[in-house]
Amino acid sequence: MLFLLMQSNLYKRYSKMDKIKWCAGKKEGLSLIEPNSDLTNAYIKKAEEALESMRVNIIKDWKISTAYYTIYFSLYALLTKIGVKCEIHSCTIEFAKKFLKDYFEESELNFTEDSLKARIDSQYYIDRTVPDEQYHKMMRKTPEFLVKCKSILIKLNEKKINEIRGKFQIASNRK
């Protein structure tokens, strides 16, 4: 966990473009892979399962975690369709903020970031609480986010995927 916090603090110091370079420079960070529809479908299934778990859970901390993973898996499904791999959650979100802003409102992308923070606070810290407003927002907006990501998957055609991959290559200085 300390490693994640150190990475997170270093990550926060970079500008938006530099964050993409930082993420692309990390072993577990952003990298191009072959687009994979089987993997995309598997992540959508994981998102749906996390959403179901969120709905049946009664413990607030676990509802927050499963809500976040619904959001994350939904977003990661988009990355796999584009052909991007990333094991650093903040980098996955940064990729969306930089390269998927045509598909999301800024408030939706901020919601993903706020949800990551809520998940970390509730999962790793005893002395931190997630404000009720954020908790209720996650419970309300998480199903909508999954639906939105499914609709984006339908809109992402080969031309748009290649455009996004090209922009990422330029931003990460990898050709």
Brief summary:
The protein is mainly α and 175 residues long.
Overview of the structural elements:
With 175 residues, the protein is mainly alpha-helical. The protein has a single domain, classed as Nucleotidyltransferases  domain 2 (Four Helix Bundle (Hemerythrin (Met), subunit A), Up-down Bundle), CATH 1.20.120.330. 76% of the residues lie in helices and 2% in strands. The chain is built from eight helices and two strands. A two-stranded antiparallel sheet has the order 1-2. It is globular, with a radius of gyration of 16 Å. The termini are far apart. The N terminus is likely disordered.
Enumerate the strands of the largest sheet in spatial order, edge to edge or round the barrel. Answer: 1-2
Structural class: mainly alpha
Low-confidence stretches: 1-7
CATH fourth-tier homologous superfamily: Nucleotidyltransferases  domain 2
CATH architecture: Up-down Bundle
CATH class: Mainly Alpha
Query: How many domains?
Result: 1
Give the count of helical stretches: 8
Rg, rounded, reads: 16 Å
Mean pLDDT: 89
At CATH level 3, the topology is: Four Helix Bundle (Hemerythrin (Met), subunit A)
Tell me, briefly, the overall form. Answer: globular
The helix-strand sequence is HHEHHEHHHH
